[in-house]
Design goal:
The chain has helices spanning 25-41, 74-91, 117-122, and strands spanning 13-18, 43-44, 47-48, 51-56, 60-65, 100-105, 108-113, 131-133, 147-149. It is α+β, with helices and mostly antiparallel strands and 166 residues long.
Length: 166
Protein backbone atom coordinates (compact mmCIF):
# COMPACT_ATOMS: atom_id res chain seq x y z
CA UNK A 1 0.00 0.00 0.00
CA UNK A 2 1.69 3.15 -1.25
CA UNK A 3 1.71 6.25 0.95
CA UNK A 4 3.37 9.56 0.16
CA UNK A 5 6.86 9.49 1.66
CA UNK A 6 6.16 12.49 3.91
CA UNK A 7 3.19 10.62 5.45
CA UNK A 8 5.32 7.78 6.77
CA UNK A 9 6.48 8.12 10.39
CA UNK A 10 10.11 9.06 11.04
CA UNK A 11 10.69 5.59 12.56
CA UNK A 12 9.91 3.92 9.23
CA UNK A 13 12.66 1.59 8.07
CA UNK A 14 14.57 2.65 4.97
CA UNK A 15 16.87 1.00 2.47
CA UNK A 16 19.03 3.28 0.37
CA UNK A 17 20.39 2.35 -3.02
CA UNK A 18 22.98 4.35 -4.95
CA UNK A 19 22.68 4.49 -8.71
CA UNK A 20 25.78 3.79 -10.79
CA UNK A 21 25.15 7.20 -12.38
CA UNK A 22 22.67 10.05 -12.21
CA UNK A 23 19.19 9.39 -13.55
CA UNK A 24 17.91 11.23 -16.61
CA UNK A 25 14.47 12.82 -16.45
CA UNK A 26 13.00 9.94 -18.48
CA UNK A 27 14.71 7.35 -16.26
CA UNK A 28 13.34 9.11 -13.18
CA UNK A 29 9.84 8.77 -14.64
CA UNK A 30 10.41 5.05 -15.31
CA UNK A 31 11.91 4.46 -11.84
CA UNK A 32 9.04 6.35 -10.21
CA UNK A 33 6.42 4.31 -12.08
CA UNK A 34 8.11 0.98 -11.24
CA UNK A 35 8.55 1.84 -7.56
CA UNK A 36 5.02 3.21 -7.20
CA UNK A 37 3.53 0.03 -8.72
CA UNK A 38 5.76 -2.09 -6.47
CA UNK A 39 4.78 -0.20 -3.29
CA UNK A 40 1.09 -0.50 -4.19
CA UNK A 41 1.30 -4.31 -4.11
CA UNK A 42 4.14 -4.89 -1.61
CA UNK A 43 3.08 -7.45 1.00
CA UNK A 44 4.55 -9.57 3.78
CA UNK A 45 2.75 -12.87 4.39
CA UNK A 46 -0.32 -11.54 2.53
CA UNK A 47 -0.43 -8.38 4.68
CA UNK A 48 -0.03 -5.09 2.80
CA UNK A 49 2.95 -2.98 3.79
CA UNK A 50 2.64 0.77 4.22
CA UNK A 51 5.48 1.75 1.98
CA UNK A 52 6.88 4.53 -0.10
CA UNK A 53 9.99 5.67 -1.86
CA UNK A 54 11.92 8.81 -2.57
CA UNK A 55 14.46 9.66 -5.23
CA UNK A 56 17.24 11.87 -3.88
CA UNK A 57 19.87 13.83 -5.80
CA UNK A 58 18.73 12.14 -9.05
CA UNK A 59 20.96 9.21 -8.07
CA UNK A 60 19.61 7.54 -4.93
CA UNK A 61 16.52 5.46 -4.34
CA UNK A 62 15.14 5.32 -0.80
CA UNK A 63 12.60 2.59 -0.15
CA UNK A 64 10.65 2.87 3.11
CA UNK A 65 8.25 0.73 5.18
CA UNK A 66 6.21 1.67 8.24
CA UNK A 67 7.09 -1.25 10.52
CA UNK A 68 4.51 -0.10 13.09
CA UNK A 69 1.78 -0.97 10.57
CA UNK A 70 3.26 -4.34 9.60
CA UNK A 71 6.80 -5.73 9.61
CA UNK A 72 8.35 -6.71 6.30
CA UNK A 73 9.50 -10.31 6.10
CA UNK A 74 12.69 -11.68 4.61
CA UNK A 75 10.75 -12.73 1.53
CA UNK A 76 9.14 -9.31 1.13
CA UNK A 77 12.54 -7.62 1.44
CA UNK A 78 13.88 -10.02 -1.18
CA UNK A 79 11.00 -9.03 -3.45
CA UNK A 80 12.13 -5.40 -3.23
CA UNK A 81 15.44 -6.45 -4.76
CA UNK A 82 13.40 -7.74 -7.69
CA UNK A 83 12.08 -4.26 -8.49
CA UNK A 84 15.63 -2.89 -8.30
CA UNK A 85 16.74 -5.52 -10.82
CA UNK A 86 13.80 -4.56 -13.04
CA UNK A 87 14.98 -0.93 -12.86
CA UNK A 88 18.45 -2.06 -13.93
CA UNK A 89 17.07 -4.10 -16.83
CA UNK A 90 14.95 -1.15 -17.98
CA UNK A 91 17.45 1.69 -17.50
CA UNK A 92 20.91 0.10 -17.36
CA UNK A 93 21.47 1.74 -13.95
CA UNK A 94 22.92 -0.55 -11.27
CA UNK A 95 21.39 0.15 -7.85
CA UNK A 96 22.82 -2.91 -6.10
CA UNK A 97 26.59 -2.34 -6.38
CA UNK A 98 27.82 -1.56 -2.85
CA UNK A 99 31.49 -1.41 -3.85
CA UNK A 100 31.52 2.36 -4.47
CA UNK A 101 31.00 5.19 -2.01
CA UNK A 102 29.35 8.45 -3.10
CA UNK A 103 31.03 11.78 -2.32
CA UNK A 104 30.40 15.35 -3.40
CA UNK A 105 33.51 16.48 -5.25
CA UNK A 106 33.50 19.76 -7.19
CA UNK A 107 29.74 20.06 -6.64
CA UNK A 108 28.94 16.72 -8.26
CA UNK A 109 28.47 13.18 -7.05
CA UNK A 110 31.51 10.96 -7.59
CA UNK A 111 31.51 7.26 -6.80
CA UNK A 112 34.83 6.15 -5.32
CA UNK A 113 35.66 2.41 -5.21
CA UNK A 114 36.06 1.08 -1.66
CA UNK A 115 39.50 -0.23 -2.59
CA UNK A 116 40.68 3.33 -3.39
CA UNK A 117 39.41 5.11 -0.28
CA UNK A 118 42.54 4.87 1.87
CA UNK A 119 44.79 6.20 -0.92
CA UNK A 120 42.31 8.96 -1.82
CA UNK A 121 42.31 10.15 1.81
CA UNK A 122 46.11 9.85 2.11
CA UNK A 123 46.61 11.90 -1.05
CA UNK A 124 44.16 14.57 0.13
CA UNK A 125 41.75 14.01 -2.75
CA UNK A 126 39.21 13.13 -0.08
CA UNK A 127 39.37 14.97 3.23
CA UNK A 128 37.66 14.83 6.60
CA UNK A 129 35.30 17.62 5.47
CA UNK A 130 34.45 16.02 2.11
CA UNK A 131 30.69 15.51 2.03
CA UNK A 132 29.28 12.05 1.61
CA UNK A 133 25.78 10.65 1.95
CA UNK A 134 24.23 8.80 4.87
CA UNK A 135 23.46 5.68 2.81
CA UNK A 136 23.55 3.60 5.99
CA UNK A 137 20.54 5.41 7.50
CA UNK A 138 18.11 2.87 8.92
CA UNK A 139 15.08 5.12 9.47
CA UNK A 140 13.36 7.91 7.61
CA UNK A 141 14.19 10.28 10.48
CA UNK A 142 17.92 9.63 10.03
CA UNK A 143 17.64 11.08 6.53
CA UNK A 144 17.49 14.54 8.14
CA UNK A 145 21.27 14.13 8.24
CA UNK A 146 21.57 13.08 4.60
CA UNK A 147 24.79 14.86 3.70
CA UNK A 148 27.60 14.52 6.20
CA UNK A 149 31.34 15.19 6.28
CA UNK A 150 33.34 11.98 5.95
CA UNK A 151 34.73 12.43 9.47
CA UNK A 152 31.18 12.04 10.89
CA UNK A 153 30.59 8.67 9.23
CA UNK A 154 32.06 5.19 9.12
CA UNK A 155 34.61 6.67 6.70
CA UNK A 156 36.45 8.28 9.64
CA UNK A 157 38.49 5.07 9.93
CA UNK A 158 40.26 6.07 6.71
CA UNK A 159 41.42 9.42 8.08
CA UNK A 160 45.02 9.90 9.17
CA UNK A 161 45.46 9.71 12.92
CA UNK A 162 47.48 12.54 14.43
CA UNK A 163 50.71 11.49 16.11
CA UNK A 164 50.76 11.72 19.87
CA UNK A 165 53.43 13.93 21.43
CA UNK A 166 54.66 13.90 25.00
Amino acid sequence: MFLPFENLPDESRVWIYTGSRAFTEKETEIITALLHAFCEQWVAHSHPLQSSFQILENQFVVLAVNEDFHNPSGCSIDSSVGVLRKIQETTGIDLLDRSRVPFIINQKIELIPLAHLRVQFQQGILQAETLTFNTLAETKGQLEHWKLPAESTWLAKYLSKPAFTH
